[in-house]
């Protein structure tokens, strides 16, 4: 491509380090779409003639079909996807192929291809996040009033409902959804026509190519257009945050499905066995979703580091952006699908959940609150009385509600029989009716509002 200036061939290691074709061949669809839009615009503007334009478009159509059907030979010597396609075009249509690169550089070409790819991939992840939210929503609805322990420090804290717990993730994933949606909105501008860095002297129509490629508008500054990769960074940060939510949920599935907990059973389709211990059902998919968070974080840091300190405009460093980004999108793709499959097919164990919900004196706060509300005892004092009651129950090896009125009155004489109405797990859960609280009446509202938005 630049033979005019050079007399010797590149070193073979130079060829290897310089080539990106094995990675950026994934941009073939975007590259051909960008080239067709560019060729048609050049023709419309009278920069190339119609015969050449038709030949170019026809040739590019043929090339993308070859690529789709695995009939295209990718060559490392031709460095990247752009030059592989252009070289093939030259073979197919001859001289006119050389006119395609008028008023264009690989710098705006790759910026356009990559932006198109990232935008489409963000859109695909949006759909997957929504599917996962629907799976969570459906399980939440089925188990809206099933009780389970709520934890802090992974110590039993207060009872909650399974529906409430699952809806917490719907909220988290909805924010991931909006992060991707925001990123898409911000990246929705077209770099094509920025040429190498300074724009071009040809009378091009950047509105036309932007529109043809589905962008909202052309980018306003040609230096920025070829240099910007913040859209990739923003996507990677959305990926890292989403992966982090997935990882917390995955961790819960690992804990919940472990035999001492046995809150849930992962379906056969999403479990693996052990080659030595026949009884095992391992939550491998959940563990791998948890593991992939590390890569997502790594990709974000890699990309931030890659771009840090690069002077304007293009530097070859930026060629390495693709592998990092592709990998992160791919692993989020798998993770979202795996998590959706696990959530859809897992079954909850009502009995174990209820038993655990009533363990660990989970309604102690309800007792303290009752002392405050019904007996007008200051909370700090109520806390102390409740602590003594828990201690008494623990020493006796019983639950709070198994203590007799006399035993409770020995701790605080003002306690009445009414206290037994509020000590049960169901009463505790039903009482937490503050906005966003765990009471089934509130959780049903949360579910209804999400159903309206999602279904
Ligand atoms: N393969 C290159 C990349 O992905 C294309 C741009 C090359 N531009 C250049 N000035 N060498 O970044």
TrEMBL record:
<dbReference type="GO" id="GO:0042450">
    <property type="term" value="P:L-arginine biosynthetic process via ornithine"/>
</dbReference>
<keyword id="KW-0055">Arginine biosynthesis</keyword>
<protein>
    <recommendedName>
        <fullName>Argininosuccinate lyase</fullName>
        <ecNumber>4.3.2.1</ecNumber>
    </recommendedName>
</protein>
<dbReference type="GO" id="GO:0005829">
    <property type="term" value="C:cytosol"/>
</dbReference>
<dbReference type="InterPro" id="IPR009049">
    <property type="entry name" value="Argininosuccinate_lyase"/>
</dbReference>
<feature type="domain" description="Fumarate lyase N-terminal">
    <location>
        <begin position="4"/>
        <end position="298"/>
    </location>
</feature>
<dbReference type="Pfam" id="PF14698">
    <property type="entry name" value="ASL_C2"/>
</dbReference>
<keyword id="KW-0963">Cytoplasm</keyword>
<keyword id="KW-0028">Amino-acid biosynthesis</keyword>
<dbReference type="InterPro" id="IPR024083">
    <property type="entry name" value="Fumarase/histidase_N"/>
</dbReference>
<comment type="pathway">
    <text>Amino-acid biosynthesis; L-arginine biosynthesis; L-arginine from L-ornithine and carbamoyl phosphate: step 3/3.</text>
</comment>
<dbReference type="GO" id="GO:0004056">
    <property type="term" value="F:argininosuccinate lyase activity"/>
</dbReference>
<dbReference type="InterPro" id="IPR029419">
    <property type="entry name" value="Arg_succ_lyase_C"/>
</dbReference>
<dbReference type="InterPro" id="IPR020557">
    <property type="entry name" value="Fumarate_lyase_CS"/>
</dbReference>
<dbReference type="InterPro" id="IPR008948">
    <property type="entry name" value="L-Aspartase-like"/>
</dbReference>
<dbReference type="Pfam" id="PF00206">
    <property type="entry name" value="Lyase_1"/>
</dbReference>
<dbReference type="InterPro" id="IPR000362">
    <property type="entry name" value="Fumarate_lyase_fam"/>
</dbReference>
<dbReference type="InterPro" id="IPR022761">
    <property type="entry name" value="Fumarate_lyase_N"/>
</dbReference>
<feature type="domain" description="Argininosuccinate lyase C-terminal">
    <location>
        <begin position="361"/>
        <end position="430"/>
    </location>
</feature>
<comment type="similarity">
    <text>Belongs to the lyase 1 family. Argininosuccinate lyase subfamily.</text>
</comment>
<keyword id="KW-0456">Lyase</keyword>
């Amino acid at each position: 491509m630049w033979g005019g200036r050079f007399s010797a061939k590149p070193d073979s290691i130079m060829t290897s380090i310089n080539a990106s074709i094995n990675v950026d061949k994934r941009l073939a669809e975007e590259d051909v779409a960008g080239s067709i839009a560019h060729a048609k615009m050049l023709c419309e503007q009278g920069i190339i003639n119609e015969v050449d334009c038709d030949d170019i478009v026809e040739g590019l159509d043929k090339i993308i079909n070859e690529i789709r059907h695995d009939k295209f030979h990718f060559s490392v010597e031709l460095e990247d996807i752009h030059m592989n396609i252009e070289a093939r075009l030259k073979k197919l249509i001859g001289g006119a192929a050389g006119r395609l690169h008028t008023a264009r550089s690989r710098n705006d070409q790759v910026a356009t291809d990559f932006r198109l790819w990232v935008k489409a991939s963000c859109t695909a992840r949006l759909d997957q996040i929504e599917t996962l939210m629907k799976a969570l929503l459906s399980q939440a609805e089925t188990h809206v009033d099933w009780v389970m322990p709520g934890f802090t420090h992974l110590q039993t804290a207060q009872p909650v409902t399974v529906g409430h717990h699952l809806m917490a993730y719907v909220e988290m994933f909805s924010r991931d959804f909006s992060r991707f949606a925001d990123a898409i909105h911000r990246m929705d501008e077209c770099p094509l026509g920025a040429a190498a860095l300074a724009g071009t002297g040809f009378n091009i129509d950047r509105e036309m190519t932007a529109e043809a490629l589905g962008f909202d508008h052309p980018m306003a500054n040609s230096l920025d257009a070829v240099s910007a990769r913040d859209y990739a960074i923003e996507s990677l940060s959305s990926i890292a945050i989403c992966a982090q939510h997935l990882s917390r949920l995955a961790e819960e599935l690992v804990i919940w499905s472990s035999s001492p907990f046995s809150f849930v059973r992962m379906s056969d389709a999403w479990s693996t066995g052990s080659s030595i211990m026949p009884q095992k059902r391992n939550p491998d998919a959940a563990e791998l979703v948890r593991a992939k968070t590390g890569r997502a974080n790594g990709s974000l840091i890699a990309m931030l580091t890659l771009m840090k300190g690069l002077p304007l405009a293009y530097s070859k460093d930026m060629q390495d952006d693709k592998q990092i980004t592709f990998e992160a999108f791919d692993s989020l793709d798998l993770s979202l699908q795996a998590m959706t499959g696990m959530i859809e097919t897992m079954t909850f164990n009502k009995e174990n959940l209820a038993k655990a919900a009533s363990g660990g004196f989970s309604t102690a706060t309800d007792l303290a609150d009752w002392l405050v509300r019904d007996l007008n005892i200051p909370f700090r004092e109520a806390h102390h009385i409740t602590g003594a009651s828990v201690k008494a129950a623990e020493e006796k090896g019983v639950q709070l509600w198994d203590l007799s009125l006399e035993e409770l009155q020995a701790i605080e004489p003002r306690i009445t029989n009414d206290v037994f109405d509020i000590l049960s797990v169901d009463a505790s859960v039903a009482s937490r009716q503050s906005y966003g609280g765990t009471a089934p009446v509130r959780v049903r509202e949360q579910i209804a509002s999400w159903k309206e938005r999602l279904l």
